[in-house]
Amino acid sequence: MEALQNFFEWLGGYVWGLPLLILLGGTAIYLTLRLAFLQVTMLPMALKQAFSPPKAHHHDHEGDISHFSALMTALSATIGTGNIAGVATAIVSGGPGAVFWMWITAFFGMATKYGEAVLAVKYRVTNEKGEMSGGPMYYIERGLNMKWMAVLFAVFGVLASFGIGSSVQANSVAQAIQTSFDINPWITGVALTILTGIVVLGGIQSISKASSYIVPFMAIVYVAGGLAIICLHFDKVGPAISLICRSAFGLDAMVGATIGMAVRYGVARGVFSNESGMGSAPIAAAAAKTDHPSRQALVSMTGTFLDTIVVCSITGIVLVIGGLYQTSSESGAALTTHTFNDLLPGPGGWLVTFGLIFFAYSTILGWCYYGEKCASYLGGERIVPIYRIIYVVSVLLGAGVNLGLVWAASDVFNGLMAVPNLIALLLMSNVIVAETKDFIMKRRSGELP
Q: Residue 276 and residue 164: Cα distance in Å, rounded?
């Protein structure tokens, strides 16, 4: 296991090297400029669209689920261990400055998430079951006529689903429950496996319904707890934010991490958390009922804002205020749990534990949908039941696997998954811009509400 972990860490160093960071950042900045900072100018409308109840005429639009359900399915897969354990590992490895680079990644990544969703809805297809199928594999094939690159994305997507989707989540939950309740990880694995199997067998309707209940409830509870800590220690918030900004550029002598480490871990964990550029979220966006690709794309864009700018920021600021990352040998969820418990004795630790359980479980559900869509692209609908069985088993196995190995492998597959998707976004940026202009013009003329 140690040799395999070392291999994935070595490979991850290359995958997440300068070329991918440039590709991720360059694509996000390029789309931001071409879309005239749409993530700022149209964010209010996007948030209103995301949380407004569906209107009666929306039921006539093509798609399987509502805007809100599509957003919750995407958020179920993004708001997970990355928001709790991922932020902690980023700070431990890259210093407080990693939080700053997570913010930068999220801000520009909103344009990337928007672009992905535009293409996903525009090039989606109806599968053998009459359901919508879409995502990078479809827009790469249908928009660029590059079947080989679409296949590569789908293969990496399936592999990534077993890492970021099932194993990482199950492992983090098992470790958190063992720390809090001294329950054997394998027992937790069995329970998660059963609960996962019950929901995923129902497909997107079942997954989106479960996500629509779990994600809003737990996100509100977790954010409220984090804000309570920030309010109780408000005098430390300013210094904490100052430290984050200074260490992001190597201006704090007390922080051992270099600028390079802050950037690498901030970007890697930021992408792990909000998945902008990876090509996963547009798979859920493609299932939404919508009258225009850009409308659902705006809703999808809010996912990055809520995930990183809101939830990850709260975790990061609380961790920097607590300062345990400097003295403790802990990392991941355990560090976040103990920090919350120190700053909010009593409910703090429980809040993180239960937040991690619910966030991770919803992520397991969301990524099963992503993975099965990639699998069905490769082998047709007949392969979906087989994929679901393997996925559910991977939840059980992930609960007892070494955490370092799981994280290292996940980083590699996440990076490999992003490459073909980012290339497609750059090559199809004209389509994204054209669809955006069309949406704005139709709204101005009254053709669209």
A: 14
pTM above 0.85, yes or no: yes
How far is the C-alpha of 377 from the C-alpha of 149, rounded, in Å? Answer: 13
As a whole number of angstroms, the distance between CA 146 and CA 138 comes to 10
Residue ranges in 233-331 assigned as alpha helix (H): 237-248, 259-274, 281-285, 293-304, 313-322
Cβ pair 90, 98 in contact under 8 A: yes
Give the per-residue pLDDT at 57: 42
* List of residues 6+ apart from 293 with CB closer than 8 A: 117, 118, 119, 120, 121, 122, 435, 439
CA distance linking residue 153 with residue 243, whole number of Å: 38
d(CA 365, CA 191): 14
Partnered with residue 288 across adjacent β-strands are 65
Q: What is the pLDDT of residue 63?
A: 53
Residue 279 three-state SS: coil
Residue 202 β-bridge partners: none
Query: Which tokens is 91 given?
Result: 């700070």
CA separation (Å) from 335 to 51, 123, 179, 265, 330? 33, 43, 11, 17, 5
Report residue 3 as tokens: 């040799």
Question: 137, 119 in Cβ contact below 8 A?
Answer: no
For the record, the structure tokens of 234 come out as 């408000």
Q: How far, in Å, CA of 156 to CA of 135, rounded?
A: 13
Residue 326: the pLDDT is 83
* pLDDT tens digits, one per residue of 356-367: 888 888 888 888
Going from N- to C-terminal start, the domains of the chain cover: 7-445
Quick check: 208 and 403 in contact, CB under 8 A?
no
> Would you state the CATH architecture of domain 7-445?
Up-down Bundle (1.20)
- DSSP labels for 246-260? HHHTT--TT----HH
* Intervals of the chain under pLDDT 70: 1, 53-67, 70, 73-74, 76-78, 80, 203-204, 252-257, 272, 402-403
Tell me what pLDDT residue 366 has.
84
d(CA 263, CA 260) in angstroms, rounded, equals 5
Measured in Å, how far apart are the chain's first and last C-alpha atoms? 56
444 CB burial (10 A radius; 0-12, 13-18, 19+): exposed
- What gap in Å lies between CA 66 and CA 189, rounded to an integer? 32
How far apart are alpha carbons 295 and 275 in whole angstroms?
20
